[in-house]
Structures are given as C-alpha cells and as structure tokens.
Amino acid sequence: MSAKMKTLEEQHQDYQRHIAVLKESLCAKEEHYNMLQADVEELRQRLEEKNRHIEKKTQVAMQATQERNRINNELSELKDHMDIKDRKINVLQRKLELHEANQKLATGAAKAGEESSILKKQVEEQKRQLEEQRRKIEEHRKGLDTRVKQVEEKEKSIAEYEMKLKKRKENLDQREAQLQKGGGQAGGGAEVVQKLEIELEVHRQELEKSQEEIKRSQEEMERLLQLVQMSQEEHNQKDKTISDLQQALKNAQAKLRSQQTANAQREQARKAEEDESNKEEKINNWENGVDELEELLSVVRLKEERIEELEEALRESVRLTADREKGLQQEEVRRKQIMEKVGKLEQRLLSLQTAHALRCSTCRPLLTRMQQLERRLTQLLDERGEHLQELTHMKQEALEAAISEKDAHLALLEVSGLRTARHAEEAEQLRADRKRLMDRLKLETEHSMRLLQEYTPPPPLNTPGDNVSLSASSLSSLQGYSQIDQDQLDNDERTGSDSSL
C-alpha cells in the first residue's frame, strides 16, 4: 500500500512538472500568435500604402501626358523658327539677285569682288545656322528614342509584376483551400483571403489601365518621331537651296568678270547716285546682321549657363549615390546586431523546447510540425522582402524617368530660346519640378531602406532529437494536454498562413 502511495505521489509530481512546462509552452504560443496578428495588420497597412503608390503612378502618367503636350507645342515653335529661317533665305536670295543686277553696272572689279565675298559669307553663315539647327533636332530625336526604350522597359517590368501577382493569387487559392480543410476556425482567414483577392483584382485592373496609357504614350512618341523626320527632310531641302544659291553666286561672279571691262566707263556717271543709295542700304543690312549676331551670342551664353546647371545636377546625383551607399552600410551593421539578438532568443527558445521534449514523448511530431511551419514562415518573409525590393526599384525607376523627362524638356526649351515671358515661366516651372522630384527620390530611397530594415526573417529553429519515454499511465493522463498543443499548433499554422498573405 505504501509503495502504491509513493508511486502515485511520484506520478502526481510528474503531472505537476509537466503541467508547468505546458503552461510555459502555451504562453510562448500565445505570444507567437500575437506577433503573427501584428504582422497581418502590418501587411494590411502596407497593402493600403501600395494602393496609394499606384494612385501616385497614375498621377505621374497624367503628368507625362501633359509633358507630351508641351513637346508638341515646342515642336510647333521649332517649326515656326524654321519658317523664319526660310524667309531669311528668301530675302538673301532676293538680295543676291539685286546684287547681280547692280554688279552688271558696277565700275570697279575690286568693289564687286568684295561685295560678292560678303554675300558669300552671309550664305555660309546661314548654312552654318541650319547645320546647328539640324544637329539640335538630331539630339532631340535621340532623346525621343531613349524615351521609347524606357517605355518598353516599363512594359516588360509591368508584365513581370503581373506574372508575380498571378503566382501570388495561386498561392492564395492554395492557402484558402488549406484553411477550409482546417475547420470552422478558418472562417476568419477565408474572409481575409477573399478581401485580398478583391484587392488584387483591383490592382490588376489598374495595371491594365497603366499598360493602355503606356501604349498611347508609345503611339504619341512615334508621331513625334515622324514630325522630327519631316523636319529633317525640310532641312535637307533647305541645304539644297543653299547649294543652289552658292552655284548661282559663282555664275554671277563669272558673268561679272566678263562684263566689268565693258561696263566700267560707260555707266560710271549715271549710276553714281544709285551706288550711293545702295551703299546706304547695305550699311543698314550690315547693322541688322550685327543685331542678329548679338542675339546669337546671347543664345550661346544661355547654353553655357545650362551646361553649368547640368554639371551641378550631375554632382548632386553623385552625392546622393554616396549618401545611399553610406546608409546601406549603416543598415547592414544594424541588421547584424539584430540577427545576433535573434540568435540568442532562438537559443533560449531551443533550450525551453528541449526541456519540454525531455518530458513528453508525444510532443516530437508536434515539434517537427512547428519546425516546418517556422521554415515556411521564413520563406514567406523572404518573399515579402523581395517584393518590397522590387516595388522600391520600380518607384525609383519611375522618378528617375520623370527627372530625365524634365531635363530633356528644359534643354529643348532653352535650345529653342527664351524669347517670351511664357517660355521663361515654363523654364522656371520645369526647374522647380525637377528639384521636387530629386527630393522625392531621396525620400523614397530612405523610406525603402527603413522598410527593408523593419523586419529581417530569423533562421529556422532546430528541434531537439532526444525524447524521454513516460509510463503508460502518464501518457494516458497527458493525452488531454497533447490535444491542447495540437489545437494550438493548428491555430498557429492558420495564423502563419494569414501572415504570409
């Protein structure tokens, strides 16, 4: 009888110790459940933030449409400028014809040769200006080609992003099936999955709208390229006109040399007054040429100022890159410190699990299942980090493309010349927009580094492999507690699935 009482007392002590261990395990699982709930809430907030980012992308697309309209206006202004050049060429042609008529009655061969050389210089100057305009249009065409390539790259990235969304939806369907098999407690998780599916469908529709907008942008770019090609053809026609004028000038000089000897003395007295009036007109023309030269010098000065501004922007970009590298190094140091802390906590958790496993022979399958769930959680957290990096990369590319567009528009506006107050106001607005985009790019970079550092997935835990067998009576008495652990692990699995979503 005393031996039986002693055995019962020992069993009672074993039960108490096992109950204490189970209570500690239950507390740990409750904390883990709370952490997973917090992760689910955080994912919902980030999904809302992603929706806001998509709205911002839509606004950026609208701004790109406005920029295209500005490019159309600038091309029309460039066409007007070329019409002015055509009128100047026609004026020079009429002057050349008038000069040929006057030279037939001129008296001095030296004066005739000098005036012919002056006209030749004027024609060469006009040709040089046309070459400069053609070079600028070629540079603008190259910029448009670059824009088209950027649009194609954006389409590829959007297609890849859509494929990833499709894969995530398939994973969500699988998770929903698992939750439905889990029982009545999975109802809340299924509702969350349905909400996420609705949100994903909305995102997919927004992506389709963005693709249509990009397609329209590409068509607009092709139309602009056609306009540039038409302008280049007009330039070729003007070059041909200049060559014809030069040939006509050579023919006129040959005729002058043959007629100067016969007409030198015959018309000297009669055309003296006409020569004087012609000289006055030429002086006026020369004064107009000096004014045009001053305008060209002012344009050259504006271009030099623009080059200095572009160099300053390049230095600012280099400085931002250095700041980003420095921030990444600091984040790496922080990540290592956090990983060390996580390692210590995992060792402590491992010791607790080892103590629990030594007292329960039926807990090994549960611990093995917990290990599998933790590995799955780590994998899902890694995937979430990759998605965050991809989203950050897309935002940075969009901002950099917008900055490049601002630079191209500002350069084109300055090349065409700031002739009116409206042009100057547009240039100031472009500079302000560019500065705002640079500040936003810097803020987005810092924000992305903070998001990536908020949570670093811990390494998978290793469960102990040794178990201690209990007596048959102890196993039968602890069956209820094992069932409690099984239910808790099922809840943890469902919670982990929601957190991965």
TrEMBL record:
Residues 469-478 have a biased composition (Low complexity). Its main location: cytoplasm. It is found in: Cytoplasm, Cytoskeleton; Presynapse. Residues 250-266 have a biased composition (Polar residues). The keyword Coiled coil applies. Residues 131-150, 250-286, 453-501 are annotated as: Disordered. Keywords: Cell projection, Coiled coil, Cytoplasm, Cytoskeleton, Phosphoprotein, Synapse. Pfam families: Cast (PF10174). GO terms for cellular component: axon; cytoskeleton of presynaptic active zone. GO terms for biological process: neuromuscular synaptic transmission; regulation of synaptic plasticity. Residues 267-284, 491-501 have a biased composition (Basic and acidic residues). PANTHER family: BRUCHPILOT, ISOFORM J, ELKS/RAB6-INTERACTING/CAST PROTEIN. This is ELKS/RAB6-interacting/CAST family member 1. It comes from Homalodisca liturata.
